[in-house]
Write the structure tokens for this entry.
Amino acid sequence: MKKIIILIFLASFICGCTNVKNLTYDDTLRTISSNSGIQNVYRTGYKYFLPRGIEVIDSKTFNEVLSNDKYKFYLYVDALSFHNNIKNTYKVNSNCYYSKIISYKDKFGYLEINLTEKEKYLIEIMYNYAKIEVIVEKEDINKNLLSAISILKSIEYKDSIVANMFGDDVLHFVEEEFNIFNTTSNDSTYIQIDNTYQEKEETVPDTDLIK
């Protein structure tokens, strides 16, 4: 039954018949269980699907900066944790605007949404050994969350290629400087140290699935 509901939702969304803004965040998260589509972006060690209307504006090994007509998405792919099969936990944060554990089949993650000082909302979603951060207006949360989910669930890793890169300095730097299992409140993340992002944002007025 849950699969039928998700398929109906996706069909309605594509046809423009569903107002995404009116969905609950739980409903949007459930789209993780739908098919990921065909990958159309290929990187060393991984590939993923980039939804229509979003483009890559910067790419640095396992860091990608994506953009639609209004916002920037910061994608970090933790291929090293994937290769080492790192497991971690997330504790729901009652102080957040929204906080949820994501669990589907053998994949783990979390969604955390927080109100920023600029009266916008920071979306942090980690899933499938990758993380996306984006700051949006409240009315745009669901639409951009759906885009982030589409990207994260579609990521496929090439383990043999990743293994050959472990000796590279760039992987060592990524491992030391960024931890996708931590939220912004606990760690210094990519979105915080990118001054270009900050300036841009200031100028732009299934029961098994979610636990």
Q: What stands out?
A: The first helix runs from residue 2 to 15. The longest strand covers residues 107-115. Helices lie at 2-15, 25-29, 79-83, 141-154, 159-164, 169-177, 190-193, 195-203.
